[in-house]
Design goal:
mainly alpha, Tetracycline Repressor, domain 2, single chain
């Protein structure tokens, strides 16, 4: 008789995981809408429909809540990158990642990056899971940037790290929300416009 390697998860554990997922989704949305400083633990608990004491059983602080959301988003980005064709042009893959990022932002699924003096920044630096996935994603994007520069598709005079940070900044670009609030363009058009300004610039051609 063959032994099974499948680990059975108890109903209680499944419920705890489902609650944790709901908490992280809620935090993700609040971080996208109002940012870390304005988000409160009380509104997270109220939005999920649980007591604040129950929330603290999963995440001991507001910083831990936000860090979990940031890790979830970075892992989602990593998973998306893994779906891209290995034989595609580096610039095409960079465009695909930036487009995915902006679509998530417009859908309210992309947390805003913490400010320089935010307590969240210190927590993220001390979160091994976050640093691991950040380095992994950055290494892939950085390699694509260097390959695109070598091929003449991106400006060779610009430091690769500056291009990387510019692309990361699209994850919290307020232009996306300003255009969305204006109501003149749908989300697909907004992404196209910002993609153009990001990769082509605003100079007349």
């Amino acid at each position: 008789m063959k032994s099974s390697n499948v680990v059975k998860v108890s109903f209680k554990e499944q419920m705890l995981q489902a609650r944790e997922d709901a908490i992280i989704r809620t935090v993700n949305g609040l971080l996208s809408q109002k940012g870390f400083e304005a988000m409160t633990v009380d509104e997270v608990a109220a939005s999920v429909g649980i007591a604040k004491a129950s929330l603290y059983k999963h995440f001991p602080s507001k910083e831990d809540l936000a860090a979990a959301a940031m890790v979830r988003v970075m892992r989602s980005a990593q998973a998306f990158i893994a779906t891209l064709p290995v034989d595609a042009l580096p610039l095409d893959n960079l465009r695909a990642v930036v487009r995915w990022t902006m679509e998530r932002k417009l859908a309210g699924e992309m947390p805003s990056l913490p400010s320089q003096n935010s307590s969240l920044r210190a927590t993220l630096i001390g979160t091994a899971d976050y640093l691991e996935v950040l380095v992994a994603v950055s290494d892939v994007l950085g390699a694509w940037i260097e390959q695109a520069q070598a091929a003449g598709a991106l400006d060779k005079k610009l430091p690769a790290i500056a291009i990387l940070y510019t692309l990361y900044a699209r994850a919290c670009d307020p232009v996306l929300e300003f255009l969305q609030m204006g109501g003149q363009y749908d989300d697909a058009q907004i992404v196209d416009v910002v993609m153009s300004t990001c990769f082509n610039g605003i100079s007349a051609r």
